Amino acid sequence: MKTWIVAMLLAVAAPLGAQGFQPGSKDLMKRDPDANLPPSPYAAKPLPELKGVVSWKTLADVKTLKQKDRFIPDFGKSVVALDRQEVKLQGFMMPLEMGERQKRFLLVALPPSCAFCMPGGPEQVVEVRAKTPVKYGFEPIVVSGRFSLLRNDEMGLYYRLTDAAPVTR
């Protein structure tokens, strides 16, 4: 659990810290850390579904079961059918590394709005391991790669996308 919290704190601070803050800058990557960010236009409604892209509604086909002293995912048939398949996913990047380009990051269904809060539950988060680093941004992205179900992840993640690459729309 501690690893998960540290990862989330680093995720929000990573791209900003790597660029350095410049008060008064119009570039969001160099904003004053105390300035209020404008609300995301995606915060009020979910991302639109795209043809050929797995929807977050599909990934929500999972229940959480208590097994002894821990909770485990019980994936529905629609999610199990995606395991080890090449898929496209759409979401918002939450970095896990320092720098403007990210090779490992979280793809989330909702835009991050708080440095200390995950935007959704584990069914709304996919760990992404990219082939080559992907440029960080605040807009939603589409990535493709090999999708895997995580049935016993120590960080509580349910999904992973490996050999991922950004898709131009």
List keywords for this structure.
OB fold (Dihydrolipoamide Acetyltransferase, E2P), 15% helix, globular, alpha+beta, 5-stranded mixed barrel, 7 strands
Q: What order do the helices and strands follow?
A: HHEEHEEEEE
Please report the number of helical segments. 3
Would you give the CATH topology?
OB fold (Dihydrolipoamide Acetyltransferase, E2P)
CATH architecture: Beta Barrel
Per DSSP E runs of 2 or more residues, the count of β-strands stands at: 7
What would CATH call the class? Mainly Beta
Distance between the termini: 36 Å
Query: Which structural class do you get from the secondary structure elements?
Result: alpha+beta
Give the overall silhouette.
globular
Biggest sheet features: 5 strands, mixed, barrel
Strand content: 25-35%
Query: How are the strands of the biggest sheet laid out side by side?
Result: 3-4-5-7-6
Radius of gyration equals: 16 Å
The total tally of domains equals 1
Average pLDDT metric = 81
The stretches of 5 or more residues where confidence is low (pLDDT under 50) are 1-32
Helix content: 10-25%
